[in-house]
Amino acid sequence: MSVDPITTEVIASRLGEITATMAYALYHSGYSPILRESKDGSSGLTDAAGRVVMIGGGLQYHLMGYQQSVQAVLERYPLPNLRPSDSFVLNDPYKAGNSHAPDMMALTPAFRDGALIGWGVSCAHKADIGGLVPGSSGAAAREIFHDGLLLPAVRFQTSAGIVDEVDAIIRNNSRIPDVVLGDLRAQVGSTRIGVQRLDGLCTEYGAATVREVMDRLIALTRQRTAAELALWQDGTAESEGFLDHDGAVKDRPVCIHVVATKSGNRLRLDFSASAPQTAGPVNVTTATAQAVSLQAVLAATDPTIPLNSGVREAVDFVMPPGLVVSPVHPATVNHYFPTAHVTYNCVLAALGQLNPARAVAPSGLGTGAITVGYRKARTGKPAVLYEIMPTALGGTSRHDGTPIIQPMNHFTPGAPVEIVESEYPIRVRRFDIWRDSAGAGRYRGGFGYIREFEVLEDSVLTVRSSNHRFPCSGHSGGLSPKPSRAVINPGRPDEEVLGAIETRPLAAGSVIRFERSGGGGFGPPTERAPEAVREDVRNGYVSPEAAREIYGLKDES
């Protein structure tokens, strides 16, 4: 059977509509701000073996976790044991491929005429699943068991409804069970919507046709990626980046190193020279390290290529077990995101050497999140604020970097001030541009920002940041941005500058100030158009002093 191109395009569009609907349902049914406001989750469709066809939502680096989760479910529940209307959940990163334990996976199999044709899958962050601190991602974690509840693949819902025993286990292991279970049910519901819509598509076009189109979409991504790689000259390039430390040994930076080798229409990414897995929580699962690397591959080839399992089939990885990017059990991985971000930057930098036409300056480091846990919030119940901290993109050969955006995913996940203040005992004292935070260049990086919270009740703060010592680099003569910082009670006698990974009790009235780095600059700053520098000064992005001393702008009288 061979499906004609028009039918292929129509079904592909319909699959895109389904995954977009799944993501919409996920975000609009979620209970927590981290899901409904910051959109820290995704939903999508795979084929019967778990190969990703499409993902809806902003977090495309969930790619590899989808496939691994499907395989984990099939290992525990072989095909004869699967039933229509079953839904499963799991969150052990070593079994599911999720980035860290708070990212729970939900899966629902799709059957047609008794045959398994695919899966609806969702991955979304949970504000608290137990563990050492509110928010579950503790700075003092030294093994995966410190990160909270770890579920293997288990049935969560059947045709009879939610499985009470699993619901009770999850509820008993969270400081905010109603919020966590509300988010999880939103996830499961989004996968069930996806399966229902996929079944309707099969009714309309036939299951064989839909399966063939799913296979073709994956094959097209593989073919387009290979074709783009074939246009490059063969060669090898390498790049490395550093995290300040792992949270356990604070005087030892953690290195991410990649060697990219392009030969013919294939690419090999070798991480063998990266640091060994760490005692502290900055390890990143192999699935996530590969997924962010694949995002960099598409950015360096053709960003219009759909991200699905086909891109993985065009790239070879060398990741010996036991590295910070390929840890083995029971290493903790709760503070994975900064490591994933450095990995992405390193791969993109190496590929920019192989394909200079798409080279860009690195995005700003200092990504991560904070959690603030309360025994009693505005509702009178315990609460956990989970706030994502984006940075900015680097400059390119044609444009300035985009400010205040999540690198890799290119969307803005910050919760609105009104939501934070209405749901938590917090006052947002400042949310403003951080002047001179961007890396200077012919095209400067996106600028960073300052965000200040005043906690109105006693609480526990965990800072999950990065790169307070090592900012990203510039490109082709561009400069580095300011590094990120976190400060408790700035300007007071008890002011304390925090490290990148810290947990602290906070008394009511304490102020936390976060300064987030901008992106790296592209090209020498003195080559920036004078009018562009003046406009930056007028907008408050660049100080008059920096305009003169860094950009070489002459005083005009």
Describe this entry's structure for a reader:
The protein is α+β, with helices and mostly antiparallel strands. It has two domains: 5-220, no CATH class; 360-557, no CATH class. It is built from 13 helices and 20 strands. It has a seven-stranded antiparallel β-sheet, with helices on both faces. It has a five-stranded antiparallel β-sheet with strand order 14-15-20-17-18, covered by helices on one side. A four-stranded mixed β-sheet has the order 8-9-10-11. Helix 1 runs antiparallel to helix 6 and helix 6 crosses helix 7 (207-230). The longest helix has 29 residues, at 177-205. It is globular and about 75 Å long.
List keywords for this structure.
seven-stranded antiparallel sheet; 23% strand; alpha+beta; 557 residues
Tally of helical runs? 13
Give the tally of β-strands.
20
Low-confidence stretches: none
Major sheet attributes: 7 strands, antiparallel
Proportion of beta-strand residues: 15-25%
What is the general shape? globular
Distance between the termini: 76 Å
Q: In percent, how helical is the residue content?
A: 25-40%
Strand arrangement in the largest pleated sheet: 2-1-5-4-3-6-7
Gyration radius from CA atoms, angstroms: 23 Å
Mean pLDDT: 95
Overall tally of structural domains: 2
SS content category = alpha+beta
